[in-house]
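User: Show me sequence and structure for the first protein, then do the same for the second.

Assistant: Starting with the first protein.
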Amino acid sequence: MQTNNNSKWVITKGFVEDKLVREPVEEVTTSRGSNVGDNVASELLGIQVLTKKRETIHLVFKTFPFDDPEQLNYVTTCRIFRRETAVYQSIIPSLEKLLGKAGQPVTLPVPKYFASYNDDENDFLSLEDLRPAGYRMLDKFVGLGHLETLKVMEELGRFHALTYQLLRYEGEKYFEGEGEVGMLAGSGWTKGTANWELMIKLFGG
């Protein structure tokens, strides 16, 4: 199955084996990765994988939103997929390593990372699909209740405290250089830059 009319990626058993789960696969089935109106800046495909070990792996496969020119301009100009890749490939493992050194539980509440590819034309990101575990996209017209909001803020506070500790532990050198992690600390989101102007155009403010 091709992920999108303009995407070069075709989801076959061989592709899933070689690029995503990296183990022998018995069967692959696909489904919608999101519902209309979910406000995701990508094309999402759900992939269910049955391995030769008879284990089931649930994935989401994210590609550029080629059918939405405005969103496509946003994700390519702001290099959203490269930023996400940097977080899952580098930042999350560094944070979990830091937690381990502090004697804390080392698993952060984020989807498991499987694979990614970045060339700014046919990027993809493959993560664990959390829907089979009971997670659902909240109805944006209903919103969160008071207790739910408190829980979200608690987790955000923990995450930000951890990233601050990472910066103190590693020093600013962690974010230096030309790689994907270094890009996260760049000035691409500051006022007056092209990325800033694009965000204002898309979301107002």
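Switching to the second protein now.
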Amino acid sequence: MITVAAVSPSPIADRRSPIVSAMPPRRLLALDLDGTVVDEHCLLPGAHRDALATIATMDVAIAIVTGRSLLTTRPVWKLLGLTTPLVCFNGAWVGLPGCNPIAQCVLEEDDVRLIFSELAGIDGAVCCYPTADRWLMDRELPLTRHWRELYQVPIDIIPDLRAMWRGSSCKMMFVARPELIAPTIARLRARLGERFHFVISQHDRFEIHRHGITKAWGLGKLANHPQFVALTVHRDAFGMIEKIGARI
């Protein structure tokens, strides 16, 4: 996913803010992470890093907009030397690492417990995120055993996660054999209606958010923050990248 937009600081912006300073209007390039910036091994190709460095010299702000947590997004953000706020959890969390979020929309405790109960008995693993920087799972699967090495982050396995759960979760994710993904989503939609939004992020997993939470929602929250004016999407996103020969 690639979006280019115009960004300007609001006249009422605090010049001391780490998010924005008094500057002329800038364009913003919003990029997904997996399959766009990083490859299937979660590695950042040198050509991609060079392309984004070139784009940065064009006075273009670069924002990562991803379904990942802050925990697994921050390393790429740091590697690229970015300062633009992140849009994580498919839009449910917007902000800078180490700062209070600009916006967030979590699953409340009742939501989490309801989803746990609906997934009970289905062969898979449930992931929860009590903070943007923590990843919990209720069981290890053959599908997930390499994830710590793949993402280079800690993942805590808590077998009684459902019983002990307290508080909210930034999102929930269900991991299972690919043939179970679509039927499980259909079952949840039939039983829960429009209360939640389901996103198939890869062939063996889907993510669960409050209804209406999408990457576009998160990017909109970034755009409409008091420190920014609204973003106006441009049509030259792919043209800009093609001109510098970047395959992202």
